[in-house]
Amino acid sequence: MNATMKSRWPSGLASAVVLGLVAFAIFGPLLNLFLWAFAEQWYFPHKLPQQFGFTFWARVFQPRGNALASLATSIWIALLTVVTSLAVAIPAGYALARLKLRWRGLILLAFLLPQAVPNIPVYVNIARIFYEIGLNGTVLGVVLVHAAHGLVLAVWIASAAFASIDVSLEEASRNMGASPWTCFRTVTLPLALPGLIASAIFVFLESLDEFTGTYFVGVPDVTTLPLLMFNASMGGNYQIASITALLLLIPSIAFMLVVERFLKADVLAMVGR
Predict the structure, then answer these.
(1) Within a domain: residue 113?
(2) Is the backbone of residue 101 left (phi > 0), alpha (psi -120 to 50) or beta?
(3) Among residues 69, 131, 200, 246, which is most buried (max CB within 10 A)?
(4) pLDDT digit string (tens) for 67-89?
(5) What pTM was estimated for this model as a whole?
(6) Are residues 41 and 119 in the same domain?
(7) What span, in angstroms and rounded, lies between the C-alpha atoms of 249 and 186?
(8) Residue 38 lies in a domain
(9) Domain that holds residue 24
């Protein structure tokens, strides 16, 4: 028995070391973020802040700090992006799930193209086009850029949500005399609603955290919280940058817990099919 324990000891130690490194890679930056958010003084070569406090929190939430206005702008843009994305994703997802489209796989692949192409060249060209048509520096222009990325998640998850619904339920509704619109409104849409809510949350979070598209299309007239965090970090004000990062982190964690409740295994199994 001692020999067995001795043979298992190196593998157990290796597993513990790997888990420790993974935990450090995940939680180390978060711990550093929390330390900077409450640090009043932190100078080299000290390993920890010399003084903690809430001075920088008060500075962030002052009207002159522009954090609350930037947060409101970020939330407003994210909500508009969700509405725009779902307006396209719901009919597109239903068509991809129910209609026998010949090029269905290519259509789904086309929605992935914004993620496959490097973002910066795309945003530079979009900014040039938007400047010519008057959308550069507007909330509408930023929403359109965010929606281009949000459609990837929205269409794929919406398609999976509609595909997971048993067709016999819709057929039973039609046999009872319901019109196609009534069947969709009273049967299909309520059953797909959990997946659509999860889709909306993913789009909302991606829009809330989006920086690059907002930087090229919205600056200087549209200021969101990620832009405020970027300006603070580039100016060496790590406390302000850390506080704004925490403000972005809180809704992300909260909404991901909601997604886990709504995005069921049967929906996930149909993604991409």
Answers:
(1) yes
(2) beta
(3) 200
(4) 888 888 999 999 999 999 999 99
(5) 0.81
(6) no
(7) 36
(8) yes
(9) 2-53
